[in-house]
Each structure stands twice: as structure tokens, then as C-alpha cells.
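Lab notebook, bench 4. We co-purified these components, and the gel suggests they stay together. Before we commit to crystallization screens, I want a quick structural picture of the whole thing.
Request: model the full complex, all chains together.
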Amino acid sequence: MTLLAIKNLSKRFSSGGRRVAAVDDVSLTLEPGETLGLVGASGSGKSTLARILMRLLPADAGSIRFEDEDWLALSGADLRRRRARMQMVFQDVLGAFNPRATVASVLDDPLRIHAIVPKAERPKEIAALLDRVGLPASYADRSIREVSGGQRQRIAIARAIATKPSLIVLDEAVSALDVSIRGKILELLVELQEERGISYLFVSHDLAVLRAVSHRIAVMDAGRLTETGPMRQVIENPQSPAAMALIHAVPRLVTEPTEGPYRDV
Amino acid sequence: MRLVRHLVRTPEGAIGLAILAALVLVALFAPVLSPGDPLRIAGRALLPPFADPAFPLGTDRLGRDVLAGILHGTRTSLAVGLAAALAAIAIGLCVGLTAGFAGGLVDEGLMRVVDAFQIVPSFLLALAFVSVIGASVPVVVLAIALGAWADPARLTRAQVLSIRERDYVASARVIGMHPAEIALREILPNALPPVLALSAIIVAAAILTEAALSFLGLGDPNVVTWGSMIAEGRNILRSSPSLSIFPGIALVVTVVGVYLFSEGLTKALAGRRLEP
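Here is the predicted assembly.
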């Protein structure tokens, strides 16, 4: 059963009188437990696509089926309730949290809103979530401003898995992180996927990252999907100019193809 | 609490806070410091200041104690100033939050109303309001608030417009938070600091407006205010200038105190934001 099916999705923005197609007739699908890497240069529309998918932006045309529901037709309380199934991790580890929040309040919100566990058990669940993403439970009392970037991204992941979603959209989720932390976060994401069967739509401009976690890769250029295929095929034998350009931008991928999971250099 | 520490560390904030604290104490303990009705005739008329220990600042034309008037006037000035500013900030926050958060036609409509209130001089508005409805403390408060809410409304709206595009608002939507909760819990607290800094200026302006209304005889006649005391003394300004000077000094000290406090608050808020 297909988890997510995007069909002919389009979105235009007006800028200075010109109409720019940010997303142009994009169709793609995602299976349960699968990671689709969505790659493209800056301005190729991949983040816009992610935000439309999260219902943060309205689409101009097209349809999205998610868990056998017309995702774009949901609204109001229905949409808010169904949002539990699709979560997102943002790129900006600083901006994705209310600066006044504590770690506990960040994780408490989704648990409370979706009534995941009874109120009395929430502190325990928060501790379990922190533990799952590799942070000590004592972090719960800290202000979000007191934790480092990598730890914040772990908290963002904990927040995303709190509602037990079937799909998490990762919008450049490791791009802002130190290279030494990046690999550990990616490992955590892969572990969670194996454990809970979560699907990822991993949006990134960095093929090296996508290569480490993706099953399939979709390449976007100027709002259009130029190429979709299994990860190895797209990286080793790119068909579209956009995909070739992206691969050439990561020279070591072409010159020294290595096996195994992503490792930091 | 951390904010207070930052505030006290700036010289403006420390002095402003000290002045305001002293004024609040005077206002609270005015009935203890000078018992009885400050408007009653207490002694010989037109006693000069520093002559009789019973009336350190002298008496006015009707023999009312000037010091008692100033002490009790502190209550009126601070109460009216704070209440008017509070009302103005409350209205401004609601309007600004609604306009910024709702956007579209609601935003347009509310902002044109704000424009209208910003164009009319606020003192004229208060003057007209009080002379039509009649002078009493609640009416004066409302009249002053009516002319002062537009600035905080505009500032709040600008803050909300900037904050609602931040990722943490997006992530609140992603976890399915209700829009009302997003507005009140995610946006409002973060939009507040500059509006709070503005509020001190509004308090100072409100105190001055109240004094001006009283000076023109449009204050509440049943309470003593600095403005009405200055107006009283105006008639005999040449022979007994002290009758106008003392309440004038009280007014200046209060407004300067509020301004210094606001200056310190602005600096403290800015300093706090620089910290990680």
C-alpha cells in the first residue's frame, strides 16, 4: 500500500509581477518504511514542496493522498488531528523552537495536543522520548536556549516521533549541523526507521547525506521533477543534467564510491 | 527576575526604578503620611513654604495643605497613568495580534481604524471625550487610553507579522496546535518585549495628559491631582509661585522616573536578547 502519493502538484509565486513556478507538475510516491531523498539546488522548489506537503503553504493545483485520505481536503480540527501522522524536522535548529520553551514543554505540546498518553504519564513519556534520541532525562528542565545545535536537532526528532507519525519530512535536517554530529543524527534517523517503520521524505541539497539514508532519490530542478529512481541508479548513472550537476558538485562521490553506511570523514 | 537584575545594572534603570519605587510607596502610604482629606481646609490660607512645621510646603488660597495634596496627588497620577497605559496596551495588543495574525481584510480594516486614531491628536480626543461624558477618574482613564492604544497596536502587529513566519510557529502548526493557542502561547509572549518598553512611555504620556486635563478643569473634581493644583496656583503665580512649582516638580520627577525606567527596560531587554 502506498503511504503517500503526490499527483501533478503545482505552486506558483508572484515576484515583482512575474509568476514563478516553485513547484511545477510534480508527482511522486512514497512507500511505508521508505526514505525518499529529494535533492535539488537552492531554489529548485524542494522546500516549497515540503511545506505544501505539511500544509504550511496552500497548493495551486494537484492532489496529495496520504494514508488513503485526500490530504489537501482536510481542514480545521480534522487537519490538526491528522497532523499527528505526518511530522516535520526543520533545518534551523535555533528557529524551530520557541525561544521561551523548555525541553520538556517542547515535547509536552504534541503529547498534550494529541492526547498520546494520559497527563500523569507525560513526564515519563518525555523522559522515554529523550532517552530514545540519546539525551539524558535531566535535560527536560533545561531551557531550549541552553542546549547545543546537535542536541536541539535530537529534541526536534523527539518532538516529531512523539505523535507516532508514519511520515516525517526532514527539511535539510542535518544541513545546519557540524559534520561530526551529522553522522550520528543520520544514524539515529535510520535506527528509528528500522524500529518504527517510519517513512522519510528527506529534503537536502547534499547528495552525500541522501546517499547515506535514501532508498530512492528524486531530483528537482526549477520546480520540476527531473529524475526519480533507486538511490544507486541515480547516483551512479544519472540521466538528467540536473542530477549530473549535483553529482559533480560532490566530487568524492564520483571518484571514490565506497560501500556501507554513511561515515564522517 | 533576570530582567530586573539586568535593569538595575543600567544606571537609567536603577535610578528610574528607585524613583518609581519611592513614588509607589508614597502613593500607597499617602493616608498614613498625611491622614485625612487632602482637600479639606487645614490652616491659614497662603502660608509660605518652610515656615510652619505643620505645613512644610505651605498652604494654598483656601488653606489646604500643599504637601498633603502632592502626596495624595501621587495616587491619582500613578493610578490614572498606569490604568490608562494598561488599558491602551491591552487594546493595542488585542487589535495588533488580531490584525497581524488574521491578515487580509481584517488586517486592512483594523489598520485603517488605527490610522484614524493616530491622525487625531490624542489630547484633543481626550479633551472632547471628557467634556462630552463628564469628568470622573474612569472616564479620564478611558479618554487617555483612547488616544494611546494606536501605537502599541501598530507595534504589536509588526512584531506578529515577523514572528508568525518563524519556524517555531510553523512547527507549532505541524504538531496540530490550535490557532488561538499559537497566537497566545507562541506569538504573543515573543511579541511583547518591545511593546512593554513602549508601555513605560505611554505611562509617562498618560500622567502628563491627566495633569493637562486637570489643569484645564476636566479632571475628577473630587480627587486632588497635580494638574489641578498647578491650575489653582496659576491665578496667584506672581505672589505665591510655590503653589504651582511644587506639584510641577512632582510631575517632572515622576515623568523623568518613568522615562529612565523605560530607557533601562529597553536596554535590559536588548541586552538579554544578545545573550545566547
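The interface with chain A takes residues 166-168, 170-178, 186, 189-190, 276 of chain B (CB under 8 Å). Worth comparing against the SEC data before the next meeting. Chain B has one domain: 2-274.
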